[in-house]
Amino acid sequence: MKKTITVLMMFFSVFLLPIMAYADDDNPITKIKEKMKFNWKVLDGLDFVFTPIGLFISLITIATLIFVVVRVIIKLVKISTGKGTIKDKWFWIEAGLIVFIVFLFISGAFFSFLENIYNWTSTQDLGGKTTFIQSMDHNHKLS
Q: Among the listed ranges 18-22, 77-81, 111-115, which one has the minimum average pLDDT value?
């Protein structure tokens, strides 16, 4: 019996240790959340990584744009010699889509879009301030 009580006390103390470690605050989960959240400031010193990546993306973007322009010129030459038709719908859709994507990268609109998504998602409060029971009471009052 004495051994069982000792084992139970040791078992329950394992669960109390994290709470006791952060007992000075009202909510220990808040302090744990601050420690576990990703710190984006570590990326500030990584210019030596992002500069070559940016250069590589720029070169691929320019090469893609040149490739599409050359394909359009070849298509126009084929049309003028009678070997091709201007009604090739899928060619023009593909060329237009590629040019649109290239200009998204060249203008920086793609990264602005990603930045706006990040800013929007970081301000969302998915958990809210209400508990499940409070939201159930609110939903019950509405119906």
A: 18-22
Convert the pLDDT of each residue in 46-81 to its tens digit.
888 888 988 998 899 899 999 999 999 999 999 899
Q: How many Cα atoms are found within 13 Å in the side-chain-facing hemisphere of 31?
A: 11
Sole residue written with tokens 């602005």 = 112
3-state SS of the chain is CHHHHHHHHHHHHHHHHHHHHCCCCCCHHHHHHHHHCCCHHHHHHCHHHHHHHHHHHHHHHHHHHHHHHHHHHHHHHHHHHCCCCCCCHHHHHHHHHHHHHHHHHHHCHHHHHHHHHHHHHHCCCCCCCCCHHHHHHHHHHHC
